[in-house]
Design brief:
Layout lengths: L5 H19 L11 H15 L10 E8 L2 E8 L12 E8 L14 E10 L4 E7 L4 E4 L4 E4 L2 H19 L6 E5 H10 L3 E5 L3 E5 L4 E5 L2 E5 L1 H9 L6 H20 L8 H11 E3 L3 H13 L5 E5 L2 E6 L2 E6 L1 H11 L13 E6 L4 H13 L3 E7 L6 E4 L6 H10 L7 E4 L11 E5 L3
Parallel strand pairs: 3-8, 5-14, 14-20, 17-18, 17-21, 19-20
Antiparallel strand pairs: 1-2, 3-4, 4-5, 6-7, 8-13, 9-12, 10-11, 15-16, 19-21
Helix pairs in contact: 2-6, 2-7, 2-8, 4-5, 4-7
């Protein structure tokens, strides 16, 4: 990257030095800011938002994913051990959200996990990474269950089969889990008084057999419980499961913002009643309070999100998401093991995509990047929704964005997304999407 003048060059060197020092420095663990009751409320809401099961990495090795016969295997690469109890160690939490089998059916038996997110918690840097796993991902289920979509693991063998599948497919061990039933989403959102969100397009879909009815207008709105379920499950937009996964991530961010509202405290009794029926976990009351307190105090700018990369594939009447082994490994290395490349001498190229109403803002941003010595290799109109900062290269980190935000405050509060597929901007190291929502 070219730096405009000597002062900026020295400043950038200082930024790189601070990153290196921060990696070796142990920060104080977050205080427990709320009562245990409020902590459980927050933990459950985060489950619903980030959606479904919690897992933690507790392994002496990182598994390297390779492709063989269309499926994944892994070989071991030595890694530093993680400690076991919740403390200043990194952990992976699996959040699982399951669907309904109809009125009167058991809440947990035979239900599919339509949302799967791995949450990596790092108390030392006070940050959270979240990996969304598309529910249609094609995997081989353990115990001779054969080739299936990954969301069928819970329906076939419960949470134990889900944990085995994730361990044998990606090499990530699960220590704890939280399962949230679909009905909890509707009831908790209503109990909280709704969730404000920008609906990026007209959404209308009716599935009478599945009792799913979606009718949402484009624009800013406050979703009630039924609308929130429809928004999270909608996938009739050409993007399928990936569009749905993105909406879950946007919903997560809106929910995170709602958690900072003092009105949430008054909703505790209602939410606790919902949790008793619709949430299942192997975590103790104390563990839930620890996670909730941590999540409640995390800076939104320290949340990094990614979706396991791949491509859709149709086999007969069945549609799969075929994971890209190499890029999937890159995402896991970055999000779970927190691999960070050396940034010295990095030359980043920026891409800017903007909605028609944001043209003036985009032009001003390009000029500012040029002043800072960055090359802007793309500037074009888009109809994408939701403003965000997309890292296309592994070298572009949250630390880099935080440094950049000091130079360009207009980048503050942007959702950070890691996407090594360069979906939005080929040849750009990072892409800024300026949208209406």
């Amino acid at each position: 990257m070219k730096i405009a003048n000597n002062n900026q060059q020295e400043e950038y060197k200082a930024f790189l030095k601070n990153i290196r020092e921060e990696r070796d420095r142990t920060s104080n663990f977050a205080k427990l800011l709320f009562t245990v009751v409020l902590a459980i409320l927050v933990a459950v809401i985060i489950c619903v938002t980030l959606v479904e099961n919690n897992f933690f990495v507790n392994s002496a090795s990182q598994e390297q994913i390779t492709e063989a016969n269309g499926f994944f295997k892994f070989s071991r690469k030595q890694r530093k051990n993680f400690e076991v109890p919740f403390s200043p160690r990194r952990q992976n939490i699996l959040l699982l959200g399951v669907d309904s089998n109809g009125d009167g059916a058991d809440l947990w038996e035979g239900t599919r996990s339509d949302t799967i997110i791995i949450v990596n918690v790092d108390p030392k840097t006070h940050s959270i990474n979240a990996i969304s796993i598309p529910r249609d991902s094609k995997v081989y289920l353990p115990e001779n269950k054969g080739v299936q979509k990954i969301n069928s693991a819970h329906a076939i063998g419960g949470v134990n089969l889900v944990k085995k599948t994730l361990k044998e497919t990606f090499g990530i061990k699960i220590d704890k889990y939280i399962i949230v039933h679909d009905e909890a989403v509707e009831k908790i959102v209503d109990a909280m008084g709704g969730i404000p969100i920008y609906v990026e397009k007209r959404m209308k879909y009716h599935d009478y057999a599945g009792k799913l009815h979606i009718d949402l207008e484009k624009g800013n709105t406050v979703l009630n419980g039924k609308q929130a379920v429809g928004y999270l499950r909608y996938r009739k937009d050409g993007l399928g499961d990936i569009g749905r996964t993105q909406r879950q991530q946007w919903f997560m961010r809106s929910l995170f913002e709602k958690l900072h509202s003092p009105q949430v405290i008054t909703k505790i009794p209602d939410v606790l009643n919902i949790c008793h029926t619709y949430v299942k976990t192997d975590m103790s009351f104390y563990e839930l309070s620890q996670y909730a307190a941590f999540a409640r105090s995390v800076d939104e700018n320290k949340i990094e999100i990614a979706t396991l990369p791949g491509a859709p594939n149709q086999k007969g009447y069945i549609s799969y998401w075929i994971l890209d082994p190499k890029k999937t490994q890159e995402v896991i290395n970055r999000m779970i093991y927190r691999d960070k490349p050396t940034l010295d001498g990095a030359k980043f190229k920026a891409g800017i995509m903007y909605s028609p109403r944001k043209e003036e803002e985009a032009q001003a941003m390009k000029e500012k990047f040029n002043e800072l010595g960055f090359e802007v290799n793309m500037l074009k109109i888009t109809h994408l929704s939701h403003t965000r900062f997309v890292a296309n290269k592994n070298a572009v980190t949250v630390d880099f964005l935080n440094w950049l935000q000091k130079k360009m405050p207009e980048l503050n509060n942007m959702q950070f997304v890691y996407d090594p597929t360069e979906t939005f901007s080929v040849g750009s190291d990072f892409t800024i999407i300026l949208a209406e929502g």
